[in-house]
Amino acid sequence: MRKLLVLAAAFVGATPWLSLVRAQQPAPAPVQAATPAPAETASGSKVWIGRYAEFEEFLKTARIVKTNDVQVGVTHPKHVFFEPGGLANGAVLKDLPAGIQGGFWEAYKSEIAAYRLDRILGLNMVPPTVERRVGPDLSSLQLWVENCKVLKQVDQKQCPRPMQWAKQVCRQRAFDNLVANIDRNEGNLLVDPEWNLILIDHSRAFATNTMPFMKEMTRIDREFYTRLKALDEETLMRELKPWVLGGGNIKDLLKRRDKIVAHFDQLAKEKTEASVFPF
Protein backbone atom coordinates (compact mmCIF):
# COMPACT_ATOMS: atom_id res chain seq x y z
CA MET A 1 0.00 0.00 0.00
CA ARG A 2 2.90 2.35 0.68
CA LYS A 3 4.05 1.90 -2.91
CA LEU A 4 0.59 2.82 -4.15
CA LEU A 5 0.63 6.04 -2.18
CA VAL A 6 4.06 7.04 -3.46
CA LEU A 7 3.10 6.38 -7.06
CA ALA A 8 -0.21 8.18 -6.81
CA ALA A 9 1.43 11.21 -5.21
CA ALA A 10 2.78 12.16 -8.58
CA PHE A 11 -0.75 12.99 -9.58
CA VAL A 12 -2.59 13.94 -6.37
CA GLY A 13 0.32 15.64 -4.50
CA ALA A 14 -11.59 -5.73 14.17
CA THR A 15 -14.36 -4.83 15.91
CA PRO A 16 -16.59 -7.89 15.16
CA TRP A 17 -20.04 -7.33 13.73
CA LEU A 18 -23.08 -7.83 15.88
CA SER A 19 -24.10 -11.20 14.48
CA LEU A 20 -22.87 -14.23 12.58
CA VAL A 21 -26.28 -14.90 11.06
CA ARG A 22 -26.01 -16.32 7.54
CA ALA A 23 -29.67 -16.73 6.78
CA GLN A 24 -30.52 -15.61 3.29
CA GLN A 25 -32.04 -12.16 3.17
CA PRO A 26 -34.64 -11.13 0.60
CA ALA A 27 -32.72 -9.57 -2.26
CA PRO A 28 -33.36 -5.81 -2.48
CA ALA A 29 -34.30 -4.36 -5.83
CA PRO A 30 -31.39 -2.99 -7.88
CA VAL A 31 -30.23 0.09 -6.03
CA GLN A 32 -30.47 3.52 -7.55
CA ALA A 33 -28.25 6.44 -6.65
CA ALA A 34 -29.92 8.67 -4.03
CA THR A 35 -29.55 11.68 -6.34
CA PRO A 36 -29.26 11.24 -10.11
CA ALA A 37 -25.62 11.36 -11.13
CA PRO A 38 -24.45 12.84 -14.41
CA ALA A 39 -24.73 10.19 -17.09
CA GLU A 40 -21.59 8.13 -17.54
CA THR A 41 -21.15 5.96 -20.59
CA ALA A 42 -19.49 2.57 -20.64
CA SER A 43 -15.80 2.77 -21.46
CA GLY A 44 -12.94 0.33 -21.44
CA SER A 45 -13.72 -2.68 -19.28
CA LYS A 46 -16.59 -1.02 -17.39
CA VAL A 47 -19.20 -2.67 -19.60
CA TRP A 48 -21.83 -2.62 -16.85
CA ILE A 49 -22.35 1.14 -16.85
CA GLY A 50 -25.98 1.91 -17.66
CA ARG A 51 -26.87 -1.81 -17.49
CA TYR A 52 -26.66 -2.51 -13.78
CA ALA A 53 -29.95 -4.35 -13.34
CA GLU A 54 -29.28 -6.41 -16.45
CA PHE A 55 -25.87 -7.53 -15.18
CA GLU A 56 -27.18 -8.21 -11.68
CA GLU A 57 -29.90 -10.48 -13.03
CA PHE A 58 -27.41 -12.25 -15.28
CA LEU A 59 -25.06 -12.92 -12.36
CA LYS A 60 -27.95 -14.37 -10.36
CA THR A 61 -29.22 -16.70 -13.04
CA ALA A 62 -26.55 -17.48 -15.65
CA ARG A 63 -25.57 -21.13 -15.90
CA ILE A 64 -22.14 -21.86 -14.46
CA VAL A 65 -20.24 -24.41 -16.55
CA LYS A 66 -16.78 -24.41 -14.93
CA THR A 67 -15.06 -23.29 -11.74
CA ASN A 68 -11.34 -22.66 -11.26
CA ASP A 69 -9.33 -21.61 -8.23
CA VAL A 70 -7.99 -18.06 -8.38
CA GLN A 71 -4.25 -18.28 -7.86
CA VAL A 72 -4.04 -15.10 -5.78
CA GLY A 73 -5.88 -14.08 -2.64
CA VAL A 74 -5.73 -15.53 0.85
CA THR A 75 -9.51 -16.06 0.96
CA HIS A 76 -9.32 -18.59 -1.90
CA PRO A 77 -11.86 -17.02 -4.29
CA LYS A 78 -13.12 -18.98 -7.28
CA HIS A 79 -13.28 -17.95 -10.93
CA VAL A 80 -16.57 -19.25 -12.30
CA PHE A 81 -17.27 -19.41 -16.03
CA PHE A 82 -20.71 -18.97 -17.56
CA GLU A 83 -22.25 -20.70 -20.52
CA PRO A 84 -20.98 -18.95 -23.69
CA GLY A 85 -23.14 -16.35 -25.37
CA GLY A 86 -24.27 -14.38 -22.33
CA LEU A 87 -23.50 -10.92 -21.04
CA ALA A 88 -20.24 -11.97 -19.42
CA ASN A 89 -17.70 -14.76 -19.49
CA GLY A 90 -17.31 -15.18 -15.76
CA ALA A 91 -17.36 -13.92 -12.20
CA VAL A 92 -15.48 -14.10 -8.90
CA LEU A 93 -17.16 -16.27 -6.29
CA LYS A 94 -16.45 -15.81 -2.58
CA ASP A 95 -17.89 -18.20 -0.04
CA LEU A 96 -16.95 -16.41 3.16
CA PRO A 97 -19.32 -16.83 6.10
CA ALA A 98 -19.01 -13.88 8.45
CA GLY A 99 -16.26 -14.52 10.98
CA ILE A 100 -12.56 -14.40 11.74
CA GLN A 101 -10.38 -16.06 9.13
CA GLY A 102 -6.61 -15.84 9.19
CA GLY A 103 -6.79 -13.19 11.90
CA PHE A 104 -9.15 -10.90 9.95
CA TRP A 105 -12.89 -10.44 9.93
CA GLU A 106 -14.19 -11.59 6.54
CA ALA A 107 -17.65 -11.78 5.01
CA TYR A 108 -18.92 -12.29 1.47
CA LYS A 109 -21.76 -9.90 2.26
CA SER A 110 -19.28 -7.03 2.53
CA GLU A 111 -18.60 -7.45 -1.20
CA ILE A 112 -22.27 -6.82 -1.91
CA ALA A 113 -22.44 -3.90 0.52
CA ALA A 114 -19.48 -2.21 -1.21
CA TYR A 115 -21.16 -2.53 -4.60
CA ARG A 116 -24.48 -1.18 -3.36
CA LEU A 117 -22.80 1.79 -1.67
CA ASP A 118 -20.88 2.45 -4.90
CA ARG A 119 -24.23 2.60 -6.68
CA ILE A 120 -25.73 4.99 -4.12
CA LEU A 121 -22.74 7.29 -4.57
CA GLY A 122 -22.74 6.98 -8.36
CA LEU A 123 -19.04 6.01 -8.47
CA ASN A 124 -19.25 3.15 -11.00
CA MET A 125 -15.96 1.79 -9.67
CA VAL A 126 -17.08 -1.48 -8.02
CA PRO A 127 -18.21 -4.18 -10.50
CA PRO A 128 -21.75 -5.58 -10.18
CA THR A 129 -21.95 -7.96 -7.22
CA VAL A 130 -24.86 -10.13 -6.09
CA GLU A 131 -25.68 -12.87 -3.62
CA ARG A 132 -26.14 -16.33 -5.09
CA ARG A 133 -26.32 -19.87 -3.84
CA VAL A 134 -23.69 -21.94 -5.61
CA GLY A 135 -23.75 -25.50 -4.35
CA PRO A 136 -24.82 -25.66 -0.71
CA ASP A 137 -23.59 -22.20 0.30
CA LEU A 138 -24.59 -18.60 -0.21
CA SER A 139 -21.77 -16.57 -1.74
CA SER A 140 -21.01 -13.28 -3.39
CA LEU A 141 -20.67 -13.31 -7.16
CA GLN A 142 -18.88 -10.35 -8.70
CA LEU A 143 -18.48 -9.72 -12.41
CA TRP A 144 -15.03 -10.76 -13.64
CA VAL A 145 -13.63 -7.61 -15.25
CA GLU A 146 -11.85 -8.38 -18.50
CA ASN A 147 -8.69 -6.87 -20.00
CA CYS A 148 -7.32 -5.36 -16.80
CA LYS A 149 -3.98 -5.22 -15.03
CA VAL A 150 -3.47 -4.88 -11.31
CA LEU A 151 -2.04 -1.55 -10.24
CA LYS A 152 1.39 -2.96 -9.41
CA GLN A 153 1.78 -3.86 -13.09
CA VAL A 154 1.07 -0.30 -14.25
CA ASP A 155 3.34 2.74 -14.55
CA GLN A 156 0.98 5.49 -13.42
CA LYS A 157 3.28 8.14 -14.86
CA GLN A 158 2.31 6.91 -18.31
CA CYS A 159 -1.36 7.84 -17.86
CA PRO A 160 -2.33 10.22 -20.71
CA ARG A 161 -4.94 11.99 -18.54
CA PRO A 162 -3.24 12.60 -15.19
CA MET A 163 -5.99 14.81 -13.71
CA GLN A 164 -8.67 12.25 -14.47
CA TRP A 165 -6.49 9.55 -12.94
CA ALA A 166 -5.88 11.71 -9.86
CA LYS A 167 -9.63 12.22 -9.45
CA GLN A 168 -10.15 8.46 -9.42
CA VAL A 169 -7.36 7.88 -6.89
CA CYS A 170 -8.83 10.56 -4.63
CA ARG A 171 -12.25 8.93 -4.84
CA GLN A 172 -10.74 5.54 -4.03
CA ARG A 173 -9.11 6.90 -0.89
CA ALA A 174 -12.32 8.51 0.35
CA PHE A 175 -14.38 5.42 -0.46
CA ASP A 176 -11.97 3.12 1.36
CA ASN A 177 -12.09 5.40 4.40
CA LEU A 178 -15.87 5.40 4.25
CA VAL A 179 -16.16 1.60 4.18
CA ALA A 180 -13.21 1.05 6.57
CA ASN A 181 -11.41 -1.07 4.00
CA ILE A 182 -8.30 -2.28 5.81
CA ASP A 183 -7.15 -4.45 2.91
CA ARG A 184 -6.58 -2.05 0.02
CA ASN A 185 -3.37 -2.83 -1.84
CA GLU A 186 -1.92 -2.82 -5.35
CA GLY A 187 -3.23 -6.30 -5.99
CA ASN A 188 -6.92 -5.40 -5.62
CA LEU A 189 -6.96 -2.23 -7.71
CA LEU A 190 -7.54 -2.90 -11.40
CA VAL A 191 -6.65 -0.63 -14.31
CA ASP A 192 -8.18 -1.13 -17.74
CA PRO A 193 -6.86 0.08 -21.14
CA GLU A 194 -8.81 3.36 -20.77
CA TRP A 195 -7.17 4.03 -17.38
CA ASN A 196 -10.34 3.36 -15.46
CA LEU A 197 -9.61 2.50 -11.84
CA ILE A 198 -11.73 -0.45 -10.69
CA LEU A 199 -12.11 -1.47 -7.04
CA ILE A 200 -12.39 -5.12 -6.03
CA ASP A 201 -12.00 -7.23 -2.87
CA HIS A 202 -14.00 -5.70 -0.01
CA SER A 203 -14.58 -8.77 2.17
CA ARG A 204 -12.76 -7.12 5.11
CA ALA A 205 -14.64 -3.81 4.87
CA PHE A 206 -17.36 -2.43 7.18
CA ALA A 207 -16.10 -4.40 10.21
CA THR A 208 -13.99 -1.78 12.00
CA ASN A 209 -13.73 1.98 12.24
CA THR A 210 -10.24 2.08 10.75
CA MET A 211 -9.81 4.78 8.11
CA PRO A 212 -6.53 3.85 6.36
CA PHE A 213 -6.20 6.84 4.02
CA MET A 214 -6.96 9.85 6.24
CA LYS A 215 -3.51 11.45 5.88
CA GLU A 216 -3.44 10.81 2.13
CA MET A 217 -6.93 12.25 1.61
CA THR A 218 -5.93 15.73 0.39
CA ARG A 219 -8.23 16.41 -2.58
CA ILE A 220 -11.69 15.48 -3.78
CA ASP A 221 -14.06 16.46 -6.54
CA ARG A 222 -17.11 18.54 -5.64
CA GLU A 223 -19.57 16.06 -7.11
CA PHE A 224 -18.41 13.17 -4.94
CA TYR A 225 -18.05 15.41 -1.86
CA THR A 226 -21.65 16.59 -2.30
CA ARG A 227 -22.96 13.06 -2.66
CA LEU A 228 -21.06 11.97 0.45
CA LYS A 229 -22.71 14.76 2.41
CA ALA A 230 -26.12 13.68 1.11
CA LEU A 231 -25.88 10.12 2.47
CA ASP A 232 -28.68 9.50 4.95
CA GLU A 233 -29.44 6.77 7.46
CA GLU A 234 -32.77 5.80 5.90
CA THR A 235 -31.23 5.06 2.51
CA LEU A 236 -28.27 3.21 3.98
CA MET A 237 -30.45 1.10 6.27
CA ARG A 238 -32.63 0.13 3.33
CA GLU A 239 -29.80 -0.69 0.95
CA LEU A 240 -26.98 -1.93 3.18
CA LYS A 241 -28.44 -3.37 6.39
CA PRO A 242 -28.99 -6.86 4.89
CA TRP A 243 -25.31 -6.95 3.99
CA VAL A 244 -23.55 -5.42 7.01
CA LEU A 245 -25.41 -7.36 9.72
CA GLY A 246 -26.64 -4.61 11.97
CA GLY A 247 -27.70 -1.00 12.23
CA GLY A 248 -24.64 -0.23 14.33
CA ASN A 249 -22.45 -0.64 11.26
CA ILE A 250 -24.60 1.90 9.41
CA LYS A 251 -24.24 4.43 12.21
CA ASP A 252 -20.48 3.85 12.24
CA LEU A 253 -20.37 4.40 8.48
CA LEU A 254 -22.15 7.74 8.90
CA LYS A 255 -19.69 8.73 11.63
CA ARG A 256 -16.83 8.00 9.24
CA ARG A 257 -18.63 10.03 6.59
CA ASP A 258 -18.87 12.96 9.00
CA LYS A 259 -15.12 12.73 9.66
CA ILE A 260 -14.39 12.72 5.92
CA VAL A 261 -16.56 15.77 5.27
CA ALA A 262 -15.11 17.62 8.28
CA HIS A 263 -11.61 16.74 7.09
CA PHE A 264 -12.17 18.34 3.68
CA ASP A 265 -13.93 21.35 5.19
CA GLN A 266 -10.95 21.95 7.48
CA LEU A 267 -8.49 21.55 4.62
CA ALA A 268 -10.43 24.11 2.58
CA LYS A 269 -10.15 26.59 5.46
CA GLU A 270 -6.44 25.97 5.92
CA LYS A 271 -5.62 26.04 2.21
CA THR A 272 -7.97 27.18 -0.55
CA GLU A 273 -11.20 25.81 -1.99
CA ALA A 274 -9.50 25.46 -5.37
CA SER A 275 -6.66 23.34 -4.00
CA VAL A 276 -8.97 20.96 -2.11
CA PHE A 277 -11.64 20.73 -4.83
CA PRO A 278 -9.57 20.93 -8.03
CA PHE A 279 -11.54 18.55 -10.26
Fold and architecture overview:
The protein has 279 residues and is α+β, with helices and mostly antiparallel strands. Helix content is 37%, strand content 15%. The protein contains 8 helices and 10 strands. The protein has a 5-stranded antiparallel β-sheet with strand order 1-2-3-7-6, sandwiched between helices. A hairpin with a 2-residue loop joins strand 6 (129-134) and strand 7. Helix 4 (162-179) crosses helix 7. The longest helix is centred in the C-terminal third of the chain and has 24 residues, at 247-270. The two termini are 24 Å apart.
Tally of helical runs: 8
The separation of the N and C termini measures 24 Å
The helix-and-strand class reads alpha+beta
Cα Rg: 18 Å
Strand residues, percent: 15-25%
Roughly what percent helix? 25-40%
How many beta-strand elements? 10
Specify the overall morphology: globular
Helix-strand pattern: HHEEEEEHEEEHEEHHHH
- Largest sheet properties: 5 strands, antiparallel
Strand order of the largest sheet: 1-2-3-7-6
Uncertain runs with pLDDT below 50, 5 residues or more? 1-27
What do the pLDDT scores average to? 87
Question: How are the elements arranged and paired?
Answer:
Elements: H1 2-12, H2 52-61, E1 64-69, E2 78-82, E3 90-94, E4 99-101, E5 104-106, H3 108-121, E6 129-134, E7 137-143, E8 149-150, H4 162-179, E9 189-191, E10 197-199, H5 222-230, H6 233-244, H7 247-270, H8 273-276
Antiparallel strand pairs: 1-2, 2-3, 3-7, 4-5, 6-7, 8-9, 9-10
Helix pairs in contact: 3-6, 4-7, 6-7
